[in-house]
């Protein structure tokens, strides 16, 4: 509702308050002369039982009166208060109390309410169409996903086979590298063994050579002694 509508509602509320503040009691001089303030209290206190019920509110009567007030009336239906009911009540009040510019304001509010209701109905129709389109799109998406899930095992099995093939090729390449490394290690071990054998042979030869040198030294000493004796 626009600010103009709120202003019109405020004017209606103000006018209603002014109407409620009007004094419609009739000042009868004869009654006022007969019943003073104390006498009026006495008359109420000394009233008959059925008359005292008008001035006494007990729980049961209070509940009953509230239930009677809650009963539907031509202006107050069984349902909740709506704008249509308020407008009808305002029209009735406008017919009872002929106030200036009230009917025009009520008609303006009714027209604005009709426009807003029409706009809401249009938006509700658009929302319902969007909901139907969304349901159709959801069904289509579910069918598409179901089809993809049915095709997915074939693609997945092919991917698994390709992965196994690649893994086997990598394992074969690693085994070839392992074989080459083993051959290199074996050749290195052979070279080390050969070198060790050569070192052992060299040590043996050096030992024999040393023994031969030691065995030849006594003979040389005897020959030198013989030469000295001969001279």
UniProtKB/TrEMBL annotation:
Residue runs in coiled coils: 99-140
Keywords: Coiled coil
UniProt name for this protein: Uncharacterized protein
């Amino acid at each position: 509702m626009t600010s103009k509508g709120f202003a019109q509602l405020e004017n209606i509320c103000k006018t209603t308050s002014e109407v409620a503040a009007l004094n419609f009691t009739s000042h009868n001089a004869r009654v006022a002369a007969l019943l003073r303030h104390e006498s009026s209290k006495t008359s109420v206190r000394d009233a008959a039982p059925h008359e005292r019920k008008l001035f006494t509110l007990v729980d049961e009567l209070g509940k009953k009166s509230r239930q009677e007030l809650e009963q539907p009336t031509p202006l107050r239906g069984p349902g909740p208060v709506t704008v249509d009911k308020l407008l009808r009540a305002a029209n009735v009040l406008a017919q009872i109390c002929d106030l200036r510019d009230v009917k025009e304001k009520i008609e303006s509010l009714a027209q604005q309410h009709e426009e807003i209701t029409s706009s809401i109905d249009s938006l509700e129709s658009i929302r319902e169409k969007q909901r139907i389109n969304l349901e159709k799109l959801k069904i289509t998406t579910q069918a598409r996903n179901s089809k993809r899930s049915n095709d997915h095992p074939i693609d997945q099995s092919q991917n698994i086979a390709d992965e196994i093939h690649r893994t086997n090729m990598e394992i074969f390449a690693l085994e070839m590298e392992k074989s080459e490394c083993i051959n290199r290690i074996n050749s290195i071990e052979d070279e080390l063994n050969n070198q060790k054998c050569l070192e052992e042979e060299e040590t043996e030869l050096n030992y024999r050579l040393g023994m031969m040198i030691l065995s030849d030294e006594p003979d040389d000493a005897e020959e030198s002694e013989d030469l000295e004796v001969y001279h």
